[in-house]
Recover the amino acids of this structure.
């Protein structure tokens, strides 16, 4: 029995090492002064970070990425919240359709999406290819599955339909009911999917590069451009960027932990529900077939 | 009654922005791509020549083949590793399991351009490990080239493993301790438990995970772009250079390739569903 535990320890140890070495290596590289013939750097320095934070281009790229994220995630919340609410309360027969539309982007890789977007928006009545506006539209679709799941689940959890019925019985209008009863109750549930979407868009490269490229340099495009220049500086960018991602996903995990009882359970549930959703989608297709 | 009808129209109007976005950026582009793939290079003549070109061209066929192989190989490796590792996870206390899942979750976000960069500084031509191994005189790594097939597989496996672990781990929770006890009470050995009960229970999630990983790798663009640029023949890189490069702009051909890539994924999903149905029927 004991030897088998050793086996598991070795397996997990190797896996963790394998997963962490690239991260640790990049981090060390970003604070290393001279490092070419030793196992660990000979000396450490912060000059790469100082250089990075004095780089106007980095700030500009960061600001552009933030602009895209705020616009598309904001739009998504503003549009999806009423849409999902209205459909689940008044047009429940269309729920399947909504789900299909919301989950479809999950199956389309960005590279395929980009092909049609370029065709549709270069020339024609709305020539927005090459401008940030096309990216906002594309990102709206990219985060659709996450936002849809998050919002729908929170509406279900708080029994939004019954809440509105109750509020209406007490004399509130629908809008009042939504604004004062439903909205405050689901805000924390939406926060999780919002943060996930932000993290997702932070690391989005394919669409940005294909649809807009250098004309609107986002963080990822800036990074791709810097790949071939100073390695130390680029690793400082990578670490800065990854810290932001960690902060976002860390907050997501914490928020999910707080809501459920045990952290393991919640994480398991989150992943399970993610998994189930993929299959539920298929089940609906299956039912349709029969 | 009329009031309710009026209200419904008002509500439908609120759905308009969503419908516009879905048509404009989801359905529209897909339809445009499919339609565009049936046009000749001039964009006027309707033809299926683009598909014929692809299936006659060695270049495009090998791109498709490379993508398929890389996706299959990386998915097989990652699922195998994840099945073993996730099982090992379950042997630890729940606190450690939690930490391990956190690490998987954390590293699953490390992908695309930053990941490629990280591998370049570690294993690239002047990478830290490359130089270190050279100094230590380890010939094993002397002819390793990151900017090649093996390099791509290595990086793909890296971003697939955390995802695979997170997807497979929950299904181990479905295997109850009592089942093991029952099986051994009835005279089953440890091996027969896994062959007759454990693996069949895990199979749906293994197949499902495999499909997700396969699709994930087929569509991966950023990682390959950063690592090999256009020096390596992959489907996603070909599409990108056909629709958005400055040199070889052939949007119709790119659309046809895009349709093929999307079909591969639909095919994978379909296959997954068939497998799932068969497995479930057996379980019943």
């Amino acid at each position: 029995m004991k030897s088998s535990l050793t086996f598991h320890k070795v397996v997990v140890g190797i896996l963790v090492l394998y997963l962490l070495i690239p991260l640790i290596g990049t981090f060390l590289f970003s604070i290393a002064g001279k490092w070419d013939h030793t196992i660990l750097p000979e000396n450490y320095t912060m000059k790469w970070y100082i250089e990075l934070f004095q780089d106007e281009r980095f700030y500009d790229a960061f600001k552009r990425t933030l602009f895209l994220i705020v616009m598309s995630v904001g739009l998504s919340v503003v549009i999806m919240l009423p849409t999902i609410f209205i459909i689940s309360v008044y047009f429940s027969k269309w729920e399947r359709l909504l789900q299909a539309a919301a989950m479809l982007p999950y199956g389309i890789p960005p590279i395929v999406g980009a092909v049609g977007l370029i065709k549709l928006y270069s020339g024609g009545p709305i020539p927005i290819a090459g401008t940030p506006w096309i990216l906002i539209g594309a990102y709206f679709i990219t985060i659709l599955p996450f936002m849809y799941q998050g919002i729908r689940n929170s509406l279900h959890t708080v029994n939004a339909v019954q809440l509105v019925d109750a509020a209406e019985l007490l004399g509130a209008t629908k809008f009042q009911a939504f604004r004062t009863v439903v909205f405050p109750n689901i805000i924390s549930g939406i926060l999780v999917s919002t943060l996930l979407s932000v993290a997702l868009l932070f690391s989005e490269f394919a669409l940005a590069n294909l649809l807009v490229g250098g004309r609107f340099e986002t963080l990822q495009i800036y990074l791709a451009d810097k790949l071939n220049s100073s390695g130390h500086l680029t690793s400082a960018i990578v670490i800065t960027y990854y810290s932001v991602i960690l902060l976002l996903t860390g907050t997501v995990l914490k928020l999910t932990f707080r809501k459920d009882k045990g952290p393991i359970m919640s994480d398991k549930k989150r992943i399970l529900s993610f998994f189930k959703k993929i299959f539920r989608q298929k089940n609906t297709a299956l039912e349709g077939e029969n | 009654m009329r009031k309710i009808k009026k209200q419904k129209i008002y509500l439908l109007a609120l759905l308009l922005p969503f419908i516009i976005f879905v048509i404009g950026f989801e359905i529209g582009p897909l339809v445009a791509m499919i339609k565009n793939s049936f046009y000749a290079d001039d964009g006027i003549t309707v033809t299926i020549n683009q598909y014929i070109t692809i299936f006659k061209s060695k270049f495009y066929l090998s791109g498709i083949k490379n993508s398929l192989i890389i996706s299959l190989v990386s998915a097989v490796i990652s699922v195998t590793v994840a099945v073993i590792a996730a099982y090992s996870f379950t042997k630890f206390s729940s606190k450690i399991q939690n930490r391990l899942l956190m690490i998987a979750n954390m590293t699953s976000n490390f992908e695309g351009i930053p990941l490629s960069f990280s591998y370049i500084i570690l294993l690239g031509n002047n990478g830290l490990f490359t130089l270190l191994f050279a100094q230590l005189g380890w010939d094993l790594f002397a002819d390793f080239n990151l900017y090649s097939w093996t390099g791509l597989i290595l990086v793909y496996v890296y971003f697939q493993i955390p995802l695979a672990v997170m997807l497979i781990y929950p299904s181990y929770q479905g295997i109850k301790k009592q089942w093991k006890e029952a099986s051994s009470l009835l005279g089953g050995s440890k091996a027969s438990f896994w062959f007759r009960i454990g693996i069949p229970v895990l199979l749906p999630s293994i197949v499902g995970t495999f499909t997700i990983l396969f699709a994930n790798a087929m569509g991966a663009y950023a990682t390959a772009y950063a690592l090999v640029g256009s020096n390596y023949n992959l489907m996603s890189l070909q599409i990108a250079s056909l629709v958005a490069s400055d040199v070889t702009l052939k949007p119709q051909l790119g659309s046809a390739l895009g349709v093929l890539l999307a079909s591969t994924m639909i095919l994978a999903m379909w296959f997954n569903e068939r497998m799932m149905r068969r497995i479930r029927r057996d379980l019943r």
